[in-house]
Specification:
The chain has 263 residues and is an alpha+beta fold. The protein is built from 8 helices and 14 strands. Strand 12 and strand 13 form a beta hairpin.
């Protein structure tokens, strides 16, 4: 089941022209959101923030806007069946929406953390401040992580500075402060990242942007990544080169962060 160009379609296949730039070049923008309380308007769903990010990319690329009313209608239709929506916009304004279920091991990952692997520095997302359909690099990096029995991959620049994971933004805890890499490093301005950053500031807790240098990441007590689907996932170990760094996935810092995600 999916929604395409104003219609709900019962199928697992989609017909596209062989000349479609979305097929040939990955020329689409997309967002993935989690629908809380079965409502697009529930605050944690952040519906407007997702639409705003899509619209910002469309304007930057000079692409056509979708029919936003029609897009919302499609999102509501799919949300009746799935808690996760992936909304894709083509250059000519066509919308494609399909749904997914939450990962079956989500609670285990949230409670016990997962392993990550630092990908080769030549791996970088294309146009990192936008979510485009060209997601080959994240997919390849996840395949590389699988070889090390890791569930996530971390992108690093040529200096070895950690940037983000293949699916989310990085968070570190140390010196009684939450830290996250700066947007100026060339990372996605994640909606969950923005939500958590603002909540921490409003609640008076210390949160700062900082380059995740090799020295800095060794000083952290806890590490995690965030996105709109999995919320916060601790990283218990990061494999890089011939060694690895261990972090505490049960650190007392995590409950204070998760209280901003209570629906």
């Amino acid at each position: 089941m999916y929604w395409y160009r104003g219609k709900l379609i019962e199928s697992e296949t989609l017909e596209l022209s062989i000349y479609d730039p979305g097929l040939l070049y990955g020329a689409t923008v997309f967002t993935t959101l989690r629908v809380y309380n079965n409502s697009l308007d529930f605050p944690l769903t952040n519906w407007q923030a997702h639409c705003d990010r899509l619209n910002s990319s469309l304007q930057d690329f000079g692409w056509s806007s979708p029919d936003w009313k029609q897009l919302r209608q499609g999102a509501q239709s799919i949300a009746e069946h799935f808690p996760i929506l992936r909304i894709t916009i083509f250059p000519d304004g066509r919308e494609l929406i399909f749904g997914k279920l939450l990962p079956s091991n989500l609670k285990e990952s949230q409670n016990n953390g997962v392993k990550a692997y630092v990908a080769n520095s030549k791996f970088h997302r294309s146009l990192p401040i936008h979510k485009t359909g060209n997601y080959l690099v994240p997919w390849l990096s996840k395949l590389s992580a699988d070889k090390y029995n890791a569930q996530e991959a971390i992108f690093a620049d040529y200096r070895g500075y950690w940037l983000e994971t293949s699916t989310g933004n990085l968070w570190g805890w140390g010196k009684n402060t939450w830290w996250t890499p700066p947007l100026s490093a060339g990372i996605l301005p994640g909606i969950m990242r923005s939500h958590l950053f603002e909540c921490l500031k409003v609640s008076g807790q210390s949160v700062k942007e900082e380059a995740f240098t090799p020295e800095f990441v060794r000083s952290l007590e806890a590490l995690a990544y965030s996105n709109c689907v999995v919320e916060i996932i601790p990283l218990c170990e990061v494999i890089q080169g011939a060694g690895s760094l261990k972090y505490n996935p049960y650190h007392c810092c995590f409950p204070q962060l998760r209280r901003f995600l209570i629906s």
